[in-house]
Amino acid sequence: MNRIVTRWAESGREFDMEEIDQIRQTVEWLPGLSRTELAATLCEHLGWFTMAGTPKLTACGRLLERLERDGLVKLPRLQSQSPRPGSKRRAARKLPEIQAPSLSARLADVAPVSLEPVTATALVRQWNAAVERYHQLGYRSAFGYRLRYFIRCDSLYLGCVLLSGAAKAIAVRDRWIGWQRHERMANLSLVLNNSRFLIFPEVRIPHLASHVLGQLARRVQDDWQQHWGFRPLLLETFVDPRQYRGTCYRAAGWELLGETSGRGLARPGQA
Fold first, then answer.
1. Which residues are within 8 A (CB) of 107 and not within 5 positions of it... i.e. 6 or more apart?
2. Within its chain, how far is the Cα of 179 from the centroid?
3. Measured distance CA(16)–CA(84) in Å, rounded
4. How many CB atoms lie within 10 A of CB 198?
5. Residue 190 φ/ψ region, left for φ over 0, alpha for ψ in the -120 to 50 degree band, beta for the rest
6. Three-state SS across 222-242?
């Protein structure tokens, strides 16, 4: 028996049949537009924008592809992209490795320790390489909203931090916030996930981790506003209790909400 779908959800927004009919009519009325142009037009018609005010083109493209698979729209063929005149294919390059220091000291002796946002291409490659080499989860390309930091002391790099989009559904978090499903879908971008936190293995400075996490909480709203145009309200992270106790997070004022039971970011048994 075939399932009848009356609502579609994509990237924090639900669409009912009336809106789907609007999308279908727009696609039929504008057959000369490319998929990207269709997505931009629909975002404008539907008022579908990010918190920073930019159209949600990628999410709209995914929705259109789903509607095409369901037989509700017929999209234009994908356009092949020809290389620009004079452009050359870039050869794959090995990521440059950063020099992780060997350092044992008291926090007071190495202060000030700071968080340095990583935006320059060369520094991004170094950050990626360091996380790939030293973090147990390695490096995976970050998509969507994200912000990398180096932990610095003078000219030394002591570690790396990554903030990215929050897990879509976490029962213990959602109960703690007290929001309903439609509220979560509308406001999830205001929650950030500390998806990587790394102190280099030969850096032994007591209380460094909690000191950095405290800095992160104090500055993240201003940094996010500068880079993405809006201010987040909540930080989350996951700790595998079989390996870690989350001591540095507790010391920095983070609250333990419970264990996860889902998949993806929220793998079962994460605290």
1. 113, 205, 206, 207, 208, 211
2. 21
3. 41
4. 22
5. alpha
6. HHHHHHHCCCCCEEECCCCCC
Q: b/e string for 149-165 if b means 16 or more Cβ within 10 A?
A: bbbebeebbbbbbbbbb
Closest CA to 200 of 249, 97, 130: 130
Domain annotation for the chain: domains and CATH numbers: 7-69 (no CATH), 103-266 (3.40.630.30)
Rg (CA), the chain: 22
* 221 close to 235: Cβ distance less than 8 angstroms: no
Alpha carbon of 134 to those of 119, 120, 139, 212: distances in Å? 20, 21, 9, 18
Residue that the structure tokens 């280099």 belong to = 200
80/133 Cα distance (integer angstroms): 36
Taking the C-alpha atoms of residue 217 and residue 136, their distance in angstroms, rounded to an integer, is 24
On whether the CB atoms of residues 13 and 151 are closer than 8 A, the answer is: no
Q: What is the DSSP letter of 92?
A: P
- 180-228, pLDDT tens digit by residue? 888 888 888 899 999 999 999 999 999 999 999 999 999 999 999 999 9
pTM: 0.71
Residue (of 57, 16, 15, 11) closest to 34 by Cα position = 57
196 contact partners, CB below 8 Å, separation of at least 6: 131, 135, 137, 160, 161, 162
CA distance 106 to 178: 41
> Which residue matches tokens 């992780």?
100
What pLDDT digit, counting tens, does each position of 123-140 carry?
999 999 999 999 988 888
Give how far Cα 202 sits from Cα of 99, 102, 116, 198, Å. 11, 5, 20, 11
10 Å Cβ neighbour count for 52?
13
